[in-house]
């Protein structure tokens, strides 16, 4: 549980505009959908996906680093890593099992014999949307364990989009529909408090010294 007194102490350091911005952004954050990228060779694409998550209100990005193990490109993410939760996994199995245990259905974003067009996708169920590598697409393990398949309708000669573009289109469409629905997609009260605390700490440059002073004066 979040220490409300500690949160209030830290928030008093911020401007009123900053605090109001946090609350406004958190009103539009969701974990109803979560995004997964699998072994993306070009990490600038993962950074761009993270940026789309942040812009359109997806709170969690899951990264499977089974082969490449590269780091997020902070320049391309443009600070999004401060506001989006990044969960890393060293195997597909671990990632899929973890997300299923949280109640997510596994959705592979790839054309398939039983796929669903983006505009027809049922947004009512919590879903983990998987995006594959630029070269090979999603792995066979994910395709085998997927609960459903999703594709973007295309009418041109080209049959595929860059992963960061695909993710942006799908995330914008689904989150927009979600906000116009009656589905309870918001963060819980405790999740909002946790994010307020994390974000205010990310916003204070000398946070370690301030924390030490606070706890030395208030913890008996």
UniProtKB/TrEMBL annotation:
GO terms for biological process: tRNA guanine ribose methylation. This is tRNA (guanosine(18)-2'-O)-methyltransferase. Its EC number is 2.1.1.34. Coiled coil: none annotated. Belongs to the class IV-like SAM-binding methyltransferase superfamily. RNA methyltransferase TrmH family. The keyword Plastid does not apply. GO terms for molecular function: tRNA (guanine(18)-2'-O)-methyltransferase activity; tRNA binding. It catalyses: guanosine(18) in tRNA + S-adenosyl-L-methionine = 2'-O-methylguanosine(18) in tRNA + S-adenosyl-L-homocysteine + H(+). The gene is trmH. HAMAP family: tRNA_methyltr_TrmH (MF_02060). Residues 33-171 form the tRNA/rRNA methyltransferase SpoU type domain. The lineage of its organism: Bacteria, Pseudomonadati, Bacteroidota, Flavobacteriia, Flavobacteriales. Gene3D superfamilies: 3.40.1280.10. It comes from the Bacteria. InterPro entries: Alpha/beta_knot_MTases (IPR029028), SpoU_MeTrfase (IPR001537), TrmH (IPR033671), tRNA_m1G_MTases_N (IPR029026). Catalyzes the 2'-O methylation of guanosine at position 18 in tRNA. CDD domains: SpoU-like_TrmH (cd18092). S-adenosyl-L-methionine binds at residues 109, 152, 161. Keywords: Methyltransferase, RNA-binding, S-adenosyl-L-methionine, Transferase, tRNA processing, tRNA-binding. PANTHER family: RRNA METHYLASE-LIKE, TRNA_RRNA METHYLTRANSFERASE SPOU TYPE DOMAIN-CONTAINING PROTEIN.
């Amino acid at each position: 549980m979040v220490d409300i007194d500690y949160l209030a102490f830290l928030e008093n350091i911020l401007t009123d505009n900053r605090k109001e911005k946090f609350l406004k952004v958190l009103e539009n954050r969701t974990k109803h959908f979560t995004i997964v990228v699998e072994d993306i060779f070009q990490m600038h694409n993962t950074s761009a996906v993270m940026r789309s998550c942040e812009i359109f209100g997806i709170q969690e990005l899951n990264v499977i680093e089974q082969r490449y193990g590269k780091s997020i490109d902070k320049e391309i993410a443009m600070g999004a890593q401060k506001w989006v939760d990044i969960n890393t996994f060293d195997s597909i199995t671990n990632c899929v099992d973890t997300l299923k245990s949280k109640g997510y259905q596994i959705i592979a974003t790839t054309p398939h014999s039983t796929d669903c067009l983006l505009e027809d996708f049922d947004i009512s169920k919590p879903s983990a949307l998987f995006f594959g590598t630029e070269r090979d697409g999603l792995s066979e393990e994910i395709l085998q364990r997927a609960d459903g398949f999703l594709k973007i309708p295309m009418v041109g000669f080209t049959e595929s989009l860059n992963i960061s573009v695909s993710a942006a289109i799908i995330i914008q469409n689904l989150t927009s529909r979600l906000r116009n629905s009656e589905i309870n997609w918001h963060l819980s009260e405790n999740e909002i408090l946790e994010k307020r605390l994390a974000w205010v700490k990310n916003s204070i440059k000398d946070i370690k010294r301030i924390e030490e002073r606070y706890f030395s004066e208030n913890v008996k």
